[in-house]
Amino acid sequence: MDDHSFYLALFATAATAFCGIVSYFRSKQALAHLDKSEKMS
After folding, report:
1. Phi, psi of 32 (to 5 degrees)
2. pTM of the entire structure?
């Protein structure tokens, strides 16, 4: 495997991991937000 395809695979893996982390934190924030609004009412 040459360097170019190695970096391409590395970038794809990093992008996938980044998207997963972002969606994980977004769902955590959404759940926390729902929890707060339920307690207020």
Report:
1. -65, -40
2. 0.59
